[in-house]
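User: Round two. Same drill as before: sequence, then structure, for each protein.

Assistant: Same drill it is. First protein:
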Amino acid sequence: MNPICEAISVLGSRHGLLLDPVRGGARIIRFDMFNEGCPLEIRAGIRFNGQEYYFPFCQGGQRFAFLDQRITPCTSRFIGIEESHALKVSLTVATPFRPRDREFSTRPVLAIRMEVEKLRGNFRWTPVLEDVSRVECFFEVVPLGGHLEVAAEDCLDLCFESCLVRASHPEASANRVPQRDRLLSPQTPAKETGFCKEMELSETGDKTLDIFWCTWSDPVLEVRGKRCPFVYVHEFKGLSDVAAWCRSSGEEIFENARKVDSIVQSNNLPPSVNRLMAQTLHAWLMNTWWVDRGGSDWFSVWEGSCGFHSTLDVEFTQSPFYLALWPELLGIELNYWPEFSKSGTATLGERGEGTEFLSHDCGEMARANGQTYPHEMEVEETANYLILLYAHWRRTGDPSIWRRHIGAVDRYALFLERCDTDGTGVPDVGVANTIDDGSPALQYGREQVYLAVKTLLALQCAAAILENHGDAGRPMVLRARAELIRARIEEFGWRGDHYACLMNNDGRGLKNPWTGKDLGMGVVPGWDGYHIYTCNGLPPLDMVGFPSPLNGSRLRDDIRNAAKACLREYGCSHSDFEADDYAAGGLQEGMVGVSSRPGWISMNMSRDICAFYRGIDLLDLSERYWDWQLTTNAQAPALFFETFGGNNLHFYPRGIAVWGFFDAAVGLVIDRVAGTRVFSGGLPGVEVPCLFEADWLRGQAPRVFRPPQVEPKLDWSETGFS
């Protein structure tokens, strides 16, 4: 594929490399924001007969005539062709990512492999000047903010500093943390700047150079006021232990990558989906933190360029990834989110007595001590939690989390009830939401269809949990309230061929949550437009077979018609409303200013999952999503770029929503509480692996095939991958 900026990182251990072939450099991913980390040059390539050829991760030097790039879930690979001597050189960086294996996946090591081979013929008819039989392969590091030390015969230490807060923060200079990384290559002597190896290009010659990039850090993440060590300290007591493991077992990283990649890539979805799955996993990994709180785990995910910890609405969109691949990670978050609950009185006054709601995030940068986002999103985040709690329970069959927080479940549900102040059932206060570049109708209008549906679902989920706990009275109350909301959505939200943005278009007294200013409007502009958020609350519930309460025929029409009305070059915008219509009045004043038709890729993916479960084929849109990633990363480092049309959410983790495509595309529903595995909806002709039931250590997974006009089937007989 076209070379773009890439990054490969270790789950939860704050260790990674950002590779920038566009501008000729690299950065170390550690505790800094991604565009502030330790810069360096990687001088890697081959030399022979006095000539040198480099991969584009440094300044200067002769580049390969042709450069290709491949990405898989566990690797990033660059391939260079030296045409006049018919040589092919590859550089692969691999991460030890093995789903549902904490110990292996968090080992703070990146494995680097360089390989050289002769082409079997000429490259594009280019004459071969001479037959080269030996080359020197080299991998050298030039730190631009640190220094190198030879640590032993086979290893080199890279010393630098990483900052725990943003570079612009007043405390930045006081929050710089010394770091020591170790690069080692077994059986290859270390030189002052790296490693080089003579290679014999015969059939039997050794044509591989392996390097392991290790790190180890003291506790840096502060959780509720206490610094917590990385979970890898249980296995490694220091950097020397990590290096020792690499000498004896580092090859496992490459073997694991082969197994994991072969499982995931055994599908017949479009190439764009597979590339998105790889790129979004890489972007998510570089945002993850996994530490030990003294007997319990803390796992959190930065919100990309924003730096917030485990933003609830972001994790909600990511939930199909967790439910399909690694539900235990979601379980860790569900366990600690209630620690950050707030009294409903903060929003509702006396009306909020006895209620609680959840905040947007858990902190920022290296401190997870409470929300730092500028305003609350009370209804949205509280509803998100209840839906996720239910979906996790049904997917895993594990009720321990909701049992531990059963009191909070009731208080959250009561808060959602009391956010309705006019008896419609639909919340009309606490309704500012995550769509921070959307129109007022979408972002903070009263009686949003988006939040009405989420509230309806959350109350139904809470009722099911409380009923399972043995409560007889509250579930009846919650279901009655949910029915009231459902009836209002169908009566006042349906506009003939789609669900509107708002059921109440009165803008009098409506305030911008960013500024606190009264918008001074009568009718909210764009209130009855098409939008892609009606079904936003459904993906995790679709995966466990929770029946949608909305009219099924209408919902399918809404998905189709809104997709058509909102479609743009790189996907669907939030709605079909043109912001230019009201920009002059300053109604969009807030975090990001005015965009004409902004859109978010992951929210498109979430909508697509709902569509697949209803037999609506939107797979071709993945080409547009991938085009946007190519467009941005071919110019500067951004990794998964969430937003198009004006906003700037980059290095974003939320694109892993695409990992829900496998289950949705074949309509796979797994409910461990009911003990059922069934199929609902899906697209004909699709074949995918079942990630939830994969044996990652053996490199095997059942395949699901959705034949045309025939029930899908799960087949464990075809599990061998090369």
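Second protein:
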Amino acid sequence: MKNLFGAGLPGAATGGMAALLLSGAAFAAPPPPPGTITAAELQATVTFLADDLLEGRQIGRRGHAIAMRYVASQFAAMGLEPAGTQGFYQPISFEERSFASERETLTLTRDDKTSVFVNGVDLSVGPGNVVGAETISAPLVFVGFGLASKELGIDDYAGLDVRGKIVVALAGAPNSLNSEVAAHLARVKTGEAAALGAVGMITVRTIAQATRGPWSKAASTARLPRRNFINPDGSTGGDAGSLKFSANVDDAAAAQLFAGSAMSFVAVQAAAETGAPHGFALTGTVKLDRSNAVTTITSANLLARLAGSDPALTDQLVLLSAHLDHLGMRTGEGDTIYNGALDNAAGVATLLAVARSFAAEKKRPKRSLLFLVTTGEEGGLMGSSYFARYPTVGIERIVSEVNIDMPILTCDFADVIAYGANRSTMGPLVAAAAKKQGLTMSPDPQPVEALFTRSDHYPLVRAGIPAVFLKTGWRDTQGGMTCRDAETLFRRTHYHEPSDDLSRPIDWNVAVKFARINAEISRTIANAHDAPRWYSGDYFGEVFAPAAPKAKRE
């Protein structure tokens, strides 16, 4: 897609911003009744946010700043109340780390023999937070999956001393665990290692992980910058704690790490298929050499509130969230801009359309609505994690969250998938709202992907808030499964690629349908007699909201 002001303005067939403005298509029709969600408003928002002018909306860059101002102006035009720390904004400082070295290596030494693994080839490691040259050297210890959970009776570190060592851990978690619980435990394993005194972690692939995607995909992004939010006290946030580095290696490098030890890497992989292998010391030491550059950038979440109509319930908040940032630009030939049309300009457009519809209605919901447009999602849910840790409103006032991220709007769907709906009483409310819109709610068709832990609602779940992550379903309106095929095509070909732009065959009437179901879900929750509750015995509810009242599963 060409730049808005560049030569060769995109034609109407591409849905470019210039074509939309020049044709006047968004302004030709008479104004719709108050509260109506229209295809024109959704198309206009996505077209603006996904234009080349915004350069992929990477945080700390001009394009993302333009996008933030656009969202804030929309909130203001709706008459919503600012709910940030500075008007609609919640500014966040980020530590941005990049490489100052031309090459980074991990050197394995054993019996006076060395093997060198190169970043971006057989090693994937990010930059550190030490400015300049850095060398980290330590012995190795294998820690199984590297998991710890008192609630589940898991302690992969039992009997192991990892102080001052580099731990080697299998990716993911045992197949016996619920996939969403497993994904959560896997996400926090770096923090567990740091808490026990480890200095670094090297992750090796399981057989299952190796079948999910080629090593080349991980290797291709190894040298990209990394970011983490900075706490008000100056420390950095995130789950890694004091760990100095976290790396991944390919299977050939993993085999060398295990050579000469109690079990070979192949044997460890085989054991992981049926259980959790016990840890043991590995022979040899490894040394990481890299050089880093560290700068500070500033970005912001955006927050707005629509007051509820019931004096007894207006202090309670139903949160709707969507992330604004994307991947920015890459070097090389051809299309270099990650426009992020579906991921997640479409999600932000949905949130704004829902907010606009509620703001225009005469009869508002009983509970208040809080709209959160986050930053830093693509770098590891940074903006939502910051908000969960430093909320601009009393966190206890937020009764639930509906998150919107990368809806597939290229197929007319007949069902929706609400990740997390089976964990709280939000499930029946979502099902009722879907039925009212002529849709059904389907169970998770890909539990192995554990999407419940992979978007901006997850940090709020860890703050004890019931949440659902709403996605378009796989069934189409003709009774077929073409919507599954549409999602598969997008994920394989366009996800996190420059081709996620306005050349995608987006159906704007489908976008309206998706926005309306989100509005109906939000309205149903906001008007319900009781606030959503975790189900008794649910892992996330018991771990993160132990004192909160629970509900029995029906």
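The longest strand covers residues 280-306.

User: Perfect.
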